[in-house]
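Batch manifest, entry 17 of 40.
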Amino acid sequence: VHPPIMSKKGEQYILNIKQRKNEEHLARKEREKRRRKVIVDQQKAQNALEQAHREETLLARLTQRSQQERKIATQLMNTRHEKDVLADNRMFRERQYAERRQRDFEDALRREAEVAKQARLAYRERAEQEKQRHAEIAAARAEAKYQKHYNICQEVLLAIVDLST
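Output type: structure tokens
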């Protein structure tokens, strides 16, 4: 294992963690922004309800007037109702888009976490293989050293035996 490579991998890992933390911070800001938008939309809806109530009251007064005035008031109410329906539909679509973006973002985070997990497992597996290979090499060296010493001792012993005979 080479320390400079491990250092680079460690720095890269730290950078990835910092990047994820930054993305989570941005996601929190985005959720807070959406929450504020929902509150504003609710206030707009409440204001629209109050406006509709005032318009209904006005319509009740206008019904006392001529038939033509009633017809115009009804058309105006229908137009405003259509406008409100369009606005509601637009808000509904925007909410759906926001939810979809949030789901996509969370899915991306889950996928990224899974990739990081797989990378960690692969790294551990490689490290274990390197450790085993190192142990095998060390054992082979020790065996070779033992055999070398054994052979030297055997030769010395045979030389002594030869000298004594």
